[in-house]
């Protein structure tokens, strides 16, 4: 029988909350891992949880909580304390425990005893500056399939849930990573949708930045994704206009209401892509008064791929021209780059096929 590979962001995708130790270290590492796993990170908490923090966490309505904290051999108290507070919070949200190795068993036990679904996996930050994303990504994927696709009653039968192998953004990131491997160069992908705009970058690892004195304490993900939940060409259009004002860019005129004409669609897509890429490259602040972290140096990217309905239906080159011509966004654009539009949406397909059918997946990305 033919194999069927399905990815999905049904039900709004995976809403992930991160609970960590320090905002600039383990909590930030968890945030980066969550984004790379295809999740929408809706809340990040750092330090010892108290009643106010639990209330804020509950208000974020996460589907899954990524509980991190402490490098291996480092702080154990925070992971144990926060597991205890989650266990007694009555939230019953599934938890991925990916913190200090010595504290993980205790954290898992106290949660399990209270009936909280738990997956235990490797520490996202086993040592300062060393970010190990793969175990937590796999655990988050498992939670997505079991509790979001399987638990949100998205289909009357079980067949749909049984077919879905991963979240769509997770599949795309795998495809982007494969494309970078095949081209042996840095790759940048901008995917403009109706509700969100996602940016993926796969960079060539730099040994000095990874191990030298300038290394990031929260570790570096050379294959990374950010999602902008306020930028889109459909329900996210108002967010594009608001964000454009903040960035001091001309905002598209959406006063005529939906459906927008082709010119407005393309203006929205160009503006959304430009702002999303600025945010991806500049990084973000983990909290009020804290410096930006997690930015990306994209100067050595050699291939830029545009994706999304507006781009695939004739507006792709105009959007990429706008993005790469952005000289006032606080980031340095790639210097020598090839541009392509993923008109057949091969990246998600290649990402799903990469593990079981690597040759087919490679052929797909090489067709771009």
UniProtKB/TrEMBL annotation:
InterPro entries attached to this UniProt entry: MutL
Protein name in UniProt: Glutamate mutase
Species annotation: Couchioplanes caeruleus subsp. caeruleus
Taxonomic classification: Bacteria, Bacillati, Actinomycetota, Actinomycetes, Micromonosporales
């Amino acid at each position: 029988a033919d194999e069927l590979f399905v990815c999905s962001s049904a039900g709004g995708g995976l809403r992930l909350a991160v609970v960590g130790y320090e905002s600039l270290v383990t909590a930030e590492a968890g945030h980066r891992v969550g984004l790379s796993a295809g999740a929408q990170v809706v809340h990040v908490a750092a330090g010892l949880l108290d009643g106010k923090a639990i209330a804020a966490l509950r208000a974020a309505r996460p589907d899954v909580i990524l509980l991190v904290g402490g490098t291996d051999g480092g702080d154990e108290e925070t992971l144990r304390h926060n597991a205890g507070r989650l266990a007694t919070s009555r939230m019953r949200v599934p938890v991925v425990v990916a913190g200090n190795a010595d504290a993980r068993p205790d954290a898992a036990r106290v949660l399990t005893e209270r009936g909280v679904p738990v997956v235990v996996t490797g520490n996202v930050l086993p040592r300062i500056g060393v970010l190990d994303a793969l175990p937590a990504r796999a655990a988050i994927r498992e939670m997505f399939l079991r509790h979001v696709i399987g638990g949100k009653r998205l289909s009357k039968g079980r067949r749909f849930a049984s077919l879905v192998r991963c979240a769509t953004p997770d599949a795309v990131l795998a495809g982007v990573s494969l494309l970078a491997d095949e081209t042996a160069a840095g790759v940048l992908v901008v995917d403009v949708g109706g509700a969100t705009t996602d940016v993926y970058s796969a960079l060539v690892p730099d040994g000095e930045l990874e191990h030298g004195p300038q290394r990031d304490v929260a570790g570096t993900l050379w294959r990374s994704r950010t999602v902008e939940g306020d930028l889109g060409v459909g329900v996210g259009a108002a967010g594009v206009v608001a964000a454009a004002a903040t960035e001091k860019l001309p905002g598209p005129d959406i006063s005529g209401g939906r459906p927008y004409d082709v010119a407005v669609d393309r203006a929205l897509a160009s503006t959304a892509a430009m702002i999303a890429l600025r945010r991806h490259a500049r990084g973000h602040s983990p909290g009020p008064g804290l410096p930006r972290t997690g930015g990306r140096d994209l100067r050595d990217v050699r291939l830029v791929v545009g994706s999304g309905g507006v781009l695939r239906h004739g507006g792709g080159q105009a959007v990429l021209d706008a993005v790469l011509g952005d000289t006032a966004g606080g980031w340095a654009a790639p210097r020598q780059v090839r541009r392509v539009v993923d008109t057949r949406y091969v990246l998600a397909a290649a990402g799903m096929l990469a593990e079981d059918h690597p040759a087919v997946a490679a052929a797909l990305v090489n067709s771009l």
